[in-house]
Amino acid sequence: MIPYTVNIKLAARTLTGTVHLQNKPAVDWGWQGLIAQGCHSSILIIDPKTSQTIQVLERHKANVVKVKWSRENYYHSLSSPYSLRLASADSSGKIIVWDVVSGTAHCEIQEHAKPIQDMDWLWAQDVSRDLLLAVHPPNYIVLWNGDTGTKLWKKSYAENILSFSFDPFDPSNLALLTSEGIVFITDFSHAKPPGSAGKKVYIASPHASPAHSKPVAATPAPTGAKKALNKVKVLITNEKPSAEAVTLNDCLQLSYLPSKRNHMLLLYPREILILDLELSQTVGVVAIERSGVPFIQVVPCGQRDALYCLHENGCITLRVCRSTSSSPDDVQELVYDLRSQCDAIRVTKTVRPYRIVICPVNENSAALVVSDGRVMLWELKSHSIKTSANSSSGLSPLYSPVSFCGTPLGQNQKRIPDLSLNTMIGHSFISGAEPSRSSGQQEVQLKFLLTSLLSGLPLPPFALRMCPPLTTKNINHYQPLLAVGTSNGSILVYNLTSGLLHKELSVHSCEVRGIEWVSLTSFLSFATSAPNNLGLVRNELQHVDLPTGRCFAFRGERGNDEPAIEMIKVSHLKQYLVVVFRDRPLELWDVRTGTLLREMAKNFPTVTALEWSPSHNLKSLKRKQLAAREAMARQTVSDAEQSSVESSVISLLQDAESKAELSQAISAREHFVFTDTDGQVYHITVEGNAVKDGARIPPDGSMGSIACIAWKGDTLVLGDVDGNLNFWDLKARLSRGIPTHRGWVKKIRFAPGKGNQKLLVMYTDGAEVWDTKEVQMVSSLRVGRNVSYRIMDIDWCTSDKVVLASDDGCVRVLEMAMKSASYRMDEQDLTDPVWCPYLLLPRAAITLKAFLLLQPWSDTFTMDIMQVYASGSLFIYLFIYFSFLSDIKSVLMDPELNLLQRCLLVSRLFGDESDMQFWTVAAHYLQSFAHARQLNVPVPEGQPQPEGAQNTPQSHLDICNDVLCESSFFQRFQLERVHLQEVKRSSYEHTKKCADQLLLLGQTDRAVQLLLETSADNPSYYCDSLKACLVTTITSSGPSQSTIKLVATNMIANGKLAEGVQLLCLIDKAADACRYLQTYGEWNRAAWLAKVRLNPAESSDVLKRWAEHLCSPQVNQKSKAILVLLSLGCFHKVGEMLHSMRQFDRAALFIEACLKYGVMELIGAAFTEYARLLRSLGLKEGAVLWASRAGGAGEELLEETNVCMYE
Q1: Are 1168 and 1190 in contact (CB under 8 A)?
Q2: DSSP code per residue over 912-926
Q3: Which whole number is the average pLDDT over 408-421?
């Protein structure tokens, strides 16, 4: 008969535990919807919606210190598919870029052998999606190609770099946080390293400033950090502060605000400073009162001006910027009001909050990583309130917006509550811009809700034992359960099919030393307390029944003040148990009845290793049982005949069997072997309560003290403390010794399965798998060579997979080759289905997106893709997803959901950054231009609509869109900003910048007041006084205008661009000023000036030139150009550009939306190409429909498609 191995499909996986201190910053939540988290040298990929670990990446040898998901800020197609790409960096300086789905490394990067301080992908992805910037200690920034691992450039700086932050509004701006201050880089480019050393500014730490360093006795301290900080005017200086003033830069974090341009936050333990970078001045402070809990981290939001803050007690708070609409002149600084906070965690020495990450797509979920391996997912929920509950607390009310996915909500339209932060709370209103509350708006309050929790293994060491193997008899109810004994006395039982915790049982009061299963659903475990003065301990031996969770002390009252239990061994048939003690003879127990069969005599040899034999007399036992059954049945029949002979034969036999087993207690004969301290092998036979001493084999001279024994079939293997393995072939009576030279053999275990003679060996420095038939090694794992962790326990979990417990707190299920535990995610058997289009094949993801976006071939929207897509094998498992996306499913099937809303919702579902940005701007301007048309306001294409036409329910884009916003709103925002700068100015430099800004904004009266403030001893006193006179006396006469214009152009020609532009703005020649700014490459400044000073027609010309510049090959920011053109209403131009960039689905859907709103003519070619794309994806009905609507351009394609469908 051919030997075979029984196997069940178990994925290689890693069960992780506590997180190392170096892993603290290694967590990231990507646009892909997944969380990556470093745990020692591994990286976990977590799905936050279902709280599952869906992948573990293992290739790093050192602790992971950073992880970053790649950005999704590009157009996705078959050639640029949705892909899960992650960069991770470790403490040895290695960076790995992963293909997460397959679990393989794209490329490995190594520059130095020191921990990477910070890294991030470049967010402007029109040029390349593969660029990764990293900080290599102590002071280098290096730009890498993350696809090939090529170094593009390297730049060093004078100080040690701690971290960096990209400006989310301008890819050429970068801020470095150094050990002494901040370095601002304004010429960052992928093509070449920054040319200059950057602008250095020093941070005068708030606590080192005079307000904080006053002697305590002199004056009573102010009541709270905020009052003290109001005295601190200058926090940013260009001069290096004196050594006395700054002892330590305790700035924890630096980050640009994604919600408004040119703002940055600095985090200190007790305050957050909001800086306006144009003024280099603090314009807002979030301070904690003296009794408050210090900050660890802050995450700024983009959709609303809000901050998620993590405190040292694990509490997450949400602070939202206060609306300034009430009294703009009283605004002294930006105020961030506390709007919600979650519960704190219990902080101990080993349990501390590490980091929070926020969902970048919706910004309404936060994941908190705790040092004990827990990941807590908090979701922000809004609930409407009747009366203003905030009035008592002095907070301005928050209102929910009346639109859904960028479009006003229909009367009976379904919506997804709490979809994202900007659908939960409306805009922060700006002075003079507060709209009247419409009927749809409701006042809301926010609260955090804990929606899921992932917990890891506790601290090592662990004791492992896999349940008995799968056989043909137990195949119907078998579960691959792994029992893990922990240092705190609890036992965790994991189901290895899913990798999820099956049960956690608190069994012991001290560290679990060993576990032995006595059936598929019960096990014995033992634990020993710390020894007392006499070296005696408390032994606990517990029997645990898994289904009920019932535990009882197996040895009854025994166990106090005795030598420690060394090991327990259950016999092959689970009948007997041997308990081996350190300095005391062993005990033999009956497992089934829980009775002590024999306590060996005092002169019994000391046991060093013991193993039960797999051979027994079960067959003869069964014959005995049958005979006993028949005899009992005969006796029972004769008794029954006297009363009634009606009993059935089956019940008689069952009755007889139980009586036979209880009365005669028939037990199979089993054997065990053990060795003593001299290496002599003893053979003992046990049958019932009879124990017989068998043969003794003298010690082998080549072996040291025997440490462990394993026995399977005719093979017996001995391992000693010197690293020798001795293989005995009992049938052939041969023995063979192999020196492994690896030190103490800690444990040896045979693999399950008939005829499977593989052997797993554990040493102090690793493990090996041996084939005992061939007597040769199959695979090896060694600490320091293959892996960085130390093996603490081993077992087989199937016939070809091993399970290892290691000192990094992880339990790994590995193939027999004991290589990495990463696996293909699409082959994995998940308990809950995961919605993540990035896991699909590129073609499947694009098809799914096309299917969800538009179904014009049918009156009703369907979720059954089989109706329109024949090749279903790809999609079978997608439908499982939709069963649990029930709220989204109902909204997608709602007939009132319009095309723009659908496009925006699908881009959110896919986590597509580029799509979301495009459809947000497109939806807003399509509606506002269509609204202007309905009011019969003539709007030529390419000009923003007049102010009166902007009366749609959502009257303006969020300020996070910067120059894409309407001019009126943008202007109001800039005026408010300069007012705040004016309040906060603390030096002549600040006053000068404010005056310049006011002149550009046309606020001449206020500018003159500031110019006249210049003190007489200031070198600029004369110039400023003359400038004030000039501003007040400017007349519109021709000669003065031409003179000023001449002076301005001369100034610009001689390098004084800013001064020349100011003069041109004074004489209302802002259009010329914009042209000069553009000529000298100041494109952003020109766009800003056009927005705040020019009329719609002139502003449109300036912005169109900017769009052309962005499209030029040397700039190549076409995606930004498209957004600029959308804001101007150049819809036809946008449609043509999308088509020429081969973005066929976006082009066709955009044109379709424009046609519905009646703001442009058809571009047939775009419809034809989209039809071609749909046909190639297999969505033939859609292809026919789009081709038929493309006019003459689609006729040929229509014929081809119809022929294909007919065939």
Answers
A1: yes
A2: -HHHHHHHHHHHHHH
A3: 80
What single DSSP character describes residue 787?
Answer: B
Q: Concatenated DSSP letters for 665-676? A: -----EEEEEE-
Helix H or strand E encompassing 697: strand 690-697
Measured distance CA(162)–CA(251) in Å, rounded: 10
Let me know the angle formed at the C-alpha of 664 by 663 and 668, rounded to the nearest 5 degrees: 140
One-letter amino acid for residue 670 of the chain: E
Q: What is the pLDDT of residue 20?
A: 93
Q: Is 859 exposed, middle or buried (0-12, 13-18, 19+ CB in 10 A)?
A: exposed
Residue 530: per-residue pLDDT: 93
Question: Which residue has tokens 């067959």?
Answer: 619
3-state secondary structure 1043-1100: HHHHHHHHHHHCCCHHHHHHHHHHCCCHHHHHHHHHHCCCHHHHHHHHHHHCCHHHHH
The band of 1201, judged by pLDDT with boundaries at 50, 70 and 90, is: low
Query: In the prediction, which pLDDT does 302 show?
Result: 92
Is residue 645 very low, low, confident or very high in pLDDT (cuts 50, 70, 90)?
Answer: very low
Q: What is the 3-state secondary structure (H, E, C) of 378-409?
A: EEEEEEECCCCCCCCCCCCCEECCCEECCEEC
Please list, residue by residue across 802-839, b when 16 or more beta carbons sit within 10 angstroms of its beta carbon and e when fewer do: bbbbbebbbbbbbebebebbbbebeebebeebbbbbbb
pLDDT tens-digit readout, 936-969:
665 555 565 554 444 444 568 888 888 999 888 8
Q: With contact defined as beta carbons under 8 Å apart, do 794 and 29 qualify?
A: no
- Please tell me whether the overall predicted TM-score, pTM, comes out greater than 0.85 for this model: yes
Please choose, from the candidates 61, 17, 54, the residue with its C-alpha nearest in 3D space to the C-alpha of residue 39. 17
Query: What does 81-147 look like in DSSP terms, one character per residue?
Result: ----EEEEEETTSEEEEEETTTTEEEEEEES-SS---EEEE-S--SS-S-EEEEEETTTEEEEEETT
Euclidean distance between CA atoms 71 and 128, whole angstroms: 11
Q: Which helix (H) or strand (E) holds 662?
A: helix 649-664
**Per residue in 704-741, pLDDT tens?**
899 999 999 999 999 999 999 999 999 988 989 999 99
